[in-house]
Amino acid sequence: MNTEMFQTPMEVAVYQLHNFNISFFSSLLGGDVVSVKLDNSASGASVVALDNKIEQAMDLVKNHLMYAVREEVEILKEQIRELVEKNSQLERENTLLKTLASPEQLEKFQGPGTLL
């Protein structure tokens, strides 16, 4: 898998979920190749073991996704903080410029759809 095309861990996780298979889960669980036999000779213990492996793999995927989501949320929170700060700065600058502008200058900018 070429992860260079993904920009966030969330995108990698979503890609992995869309393209998962038994070997993917197997690699997550330590490299053991899981083989499934579709015959009636499988014992109850092997079915339970397979169910446990699948459950472990799903838990691992869930944990990976939760980590990726938390990381993405933190990035977005930081971007929101930066945008709020920039917005406040621009509002202060706008107020200052309006107080320093002459009435003629203000008239040039007043028109339909212009907020002052």
Structural features, described:
By secondary structure, this protein is mostly helical. It has a domain of 52 residues. 70% of the residues lie in helices and 0% in strands. The chain is built from 4 helices and no strands. Helix 1 runs antiparallel to helix 3. The longest helix has 57 residues. It starts with 8 loop residues before the first helix and ends in a 7-residue tail after the last helix. 0% of the residues are buried. About 8% of the residues have low confidence.
Short overview:
The chain is built from 4 helices and no strands. By secondary structure, the chain is an all-alpha fold.
Topology (SSEs and partners):
Layout: H1 9-18, H2 22-28, H3 44-100, H4 103-109
Helix pairs in contact: 1-3
Query: Structural class of the helices, strands and pairings?
Result: mainly alpha
Report the total helices. Answer: 4
Query: Quick one: how many beta strands?
Result: 0
Strand content: under 5%
Q: Estimate percent helicity.
A: 55-70%
> Radius of gyration, rounded?
28 Å
Indicate the overall shape. rod-shaped
Describe the biggest sheet? Answer: none
If you average the pLDDT, what whole number results? 78
GO biological process, one term: negative regulation of activation-induced cell death of T cells
InterPro entries: TSC22/Bun, TSC22/BUN_CS
Protein name: TSC22 domain family protein 3
Coiled coil: 66-100
